[in-house]
Amino acid sequence: MTTAVHTGYASPVSLLRDWEHDGKGPLREFLVLGGTTDLPFLEAVAVPRARALGARVAILGDAGNAPHEAVDVRPAGRDYLHGVASCHGAFHPQLALLLGDDACRVAIGSGDPTPSVRGSDDAPWIVVATDDGASHPLLADLADWLEALPDAVAMTPWWADHLRHLAELLTVLHCEAPPTDTEGPEVELAHNLRTPLIDRLPRHPVDELRLYAPFVDPSEELLRLLRERMSPGEITLGVQRGRSRHDSAGVRRAFEGHPAARVRELAETGTRHGRLVEWRVGDTWHALTGSPDLTRAALARAVGDATGGTEEGPARNCELAVIAHDTAPLPPDEGPVRPARELTGSTVTPRDATEKPPALVLLGVRAHGLLLEAVLGRRPAGAEVTVEISTDGGAPGSWHPIGPIPADRDTGTFPWTAAPGAAVRASCRLADGTYAESAAAFPYDPEGCAPRGAADTVARLSRAYAVDELFRDAAAARRFEQDVARLRALVVTDEAGPGGAAHATVADCCRALGTALTELAFGPLASDLPRLPQAPAARRQSSGYLAADEEDETPGAEPEESPSALPDSAREQARAWIAGLARRPAAEATRADPPTGDDTAARARPWSVPTTLLITALHLQLLAAGAWDEHDYGWRAVTADLLHALDAADADVPDEQRQRLDAVTAVCVSLLGLHGDLEGPDADPLAAAAWSLARTAVARAEPEHAADLCLPPGRRGAPVVTEADVEALAKRASDVPDPVAEAHRALEAAHVGATYENGVWELAGEFSNPQAACAKAVTLLAALRPGPVLARAHARGTGVPCFMAWSRPLLIRQRGRQWTAFRITAPATPLATFQSAAPRPTAQGDEARRGLGPLLDEAGLDPVSVFLHLQRSPGAR
What is the largest CA-CA distance in the chain? Predict the structure, then answer.
């Protein structure tokens, strides 16, 4: 494993060239962030090279700085992902991230990805390079920053998901590697999402301070703050008289009275894009380099700083930087030096001092079937915005309106026909009668921009694994974790439709995972597959373990029929490993948006059924092998995490995989039920939540489809279940003697009267808050038995009645004539959700109402009868 840090010139192009030249293998992800992103430039010099290496390319820039015209942009949205971010100031981080399976490159520095910085070797960049699966502490900090960024600045939900996906990949592939020695200076990440960057600078006297940036605050405020904070013995400010933006009077005021404040006049051969705060203590130099200029908005404010208000207060840029210790001095020692008091002239224009962010910002657009969703980031108050489309790539005269976004909303959906190369913009009329137009956005197409090789073939594990090897060998376990992060989608091309994705078959998974792991994931479903050649290490029984002193099996030996105890030396590592592995699909499951209405394929969940089944099977194997002590119940939280991931598996998986999914779910719920009551006054919260979440799947389960996971214990007290346990639980889930009577008793106990008519529970009486009453009823009823529940509450006086249909995670609500759909994931309930706040809907109008059909089908109700009942009952409108 090797890790290196170096300082020097870098660019997306140079990083890609070096990656290819050094033979680093396939590139999985390529991310470029910049305040100003010149798309035609990147399309010419970076995108083709990154795509040729196999990468998915993503470019995110500032919403107010697009130097290109839409008509000059070609494959944006189709061959690479493009987006913008907006904050009250400039979105200004300058970052290039290259992610491979074994190698990673992170470059943070100065200079946006535009032609103007090509060849500017004075712009300092910090490059962290890791190879052979190594890590560096800065990578973990960068993953945290990518995870937090969408909560700090405005961007589309799909871009937020992509950044968080990159954060997870960075964590799994590199951050969790064992520490290694690093060549180069010590570096740490610095940003201003929560605290100003100036707080990262020393608050004590320094011997020397050197400063440079292309833009210096016209006032003396920032320079004065730096001087007061660091009390430097010497100060040198680098300026370009004709190119950097500074005001000589402000500089003189900031340094007034300092005996050793100087200005170095740098050569005017080109704009120097470097940004630098460098200080010396004794003989040791330290430097903050990155995106921030020498301005209050960049260095002395945080993105989340609400001082002065969020929109009307002072500008707060989003910046990213690196602090390096024990470095060589970075700025060139060239050009005449004179006392700061002798600086004259000003290169700050009135526009620099008065420039404001754009009045109208379109953050992005994305197609959902025959609908196009548009998301605004900024708009004039009270103005109706018109969304316009050009099917000719933004050519002049080709724009035409497709619909409005009302003044009280920031998103809109519009019918559209897919048009390759389309561009979309927003426009509105301002109060003074003039018009504002946003920069163009390009439809976001994650399938077309997927990593090369992932969309047209089934990716494979880097090697064959034996199950016992995963539990005993930390290096193999980590390598497997990296592989699973790449394979979590496990999809293949659907030949029925170009570019579509279908679920991988069991045979596909066998090619990707190998025979042993496919059998572990799918059990009986994999028994009829032809066995593929495997590496010797994998030619072991998939459900067996080897004790620490046990030798490899001899040729012709019969495989073990039950797991042996996990060696004590491997138990702690195995527990931590499986807990971390299970947490990731569970977290993605709670974050994913649901498919609603007709658009059931609008958004594929990030963890597929095969990968989730495999992780769950590994967990059950570890339980049987005694990874946890007899009285250590930490495994229950891991089991609950996996149940969330299993519940989030796609609804339209093949029937055979659905049978396996239900059976494995039943095994997990059985485990929790054997160690805590599922129902009743003494119910265990974790077990009861699992029962409520998965009862429908348990009722469908056929125990023989998970018989391979009903294992004998390999250590005393190891938590296991038998087929009889699973069979009894499935019968309990589906066998309700009189569900209506049971529901009446539960409602009466909660002081709610109701009648049951045509599949709808009509709550007795009238309510001042019919929505809360309805949410309470469906929550109670859903806890009794699997399947959808329908309830309606009538309003007091002239109020509007409320109807709800609930089957986790989808809730359909009708209030008067308005239909709305919501996603409510465990452990949340409708009762808690509508008591605490108004949740964000996932669909409205006809799209939400169409989602009622599948719920009625699942409940076995006639849609016509339900509709006529809702029309006929008192209080309906």
Answer: 94
Sign of CA dihedral 88, 94, 100, 103: negative
Structure tokens that stand for 633 in this block: 């119940």
Q: Specify the 3-state DSSP secondary structure of 226.
A: helix
Q: How many CB atoms lie within 10 A of CB 353?
A: 12
Tell me the CB-side half-sphere exposure of residue 611, using CA atoms within 13 A.
29
Backbone angles phi, psi at 103, to 5 degrees: -125, 155
Pairing of strands 435-437, 399-405: unpaired
The amino acid at 729: L
Q: 573: which 2 tokens?
A: 């590592």
CA dihedral for 12, 13, 17, 20, sign (positive or negative): positive
Structure token digits, residue 647: 């519940």
Residue 611 has pLDDT above 60, yes or no: yes
d(CA 841, CA 847): 11
b/e map 790-799, b = 16+ CB within 10 Å = bbbbbbeeeb
Which pTM does this prediction carry?
A: 0.67
Written as six digits, the tokens of 407 are 């003044």
pLDDT digits (tens, 9 = 90+) for 782-817: 877 777 999 999 988 878 899 999 998 899 999 888
Q: How far, in Å, CA of 754 to CA of 163, rounded?
A: 48
Q: How confident is the model at residue 287 (pLDDT cuts 50, 70, 90)?
A: very high
- Tokens 């491997």 sit at which residue? 570
Alpha-carbon radius of gyration of the chain: 30
Cβ-proximal residues to 191 (8 Å cutoff; 6+ apart), any chain: 93, 145, 197, 319, 320, 321
DSSP characters over 333-354: --S-EEEGGG---B---HHHHH
Q: Strand 491-493 to strand 501-503: parallel, antiparallel, or no bridges (unpaired)?
A: antiparallel
List 33's β-bridge partners, or say none.
Answer: 60, 95
Look at residue 272 in the predicted model and tell me its pLDDT. 67
Q: What average pLDDT does the segment 720-746 reach?
A: 83
Q: Look up residue 257 and give its two tokens.
A: 């009275």
Confidence band, pLDDT 50/70/90 cuts, at residue 446: confident
pLDDT beyond 50 at 111: yes
Most confident range, picked from 104-113, 371-380, 509-518, 655-664 = 371-380
What residue type is 846 in one-letter code? D
* 20 secondary structure, DSSP code: H
Sign of the Cα pseudo-torsion (707, 621, 604, 524, in order): negative
Of 73 and 735, the one with more pLDDT: 73
- Cβ neighbours, 10 Å, residue 680: 8
Q: Where do the H-state alpha helices sit in 232-293?
A: 248-255
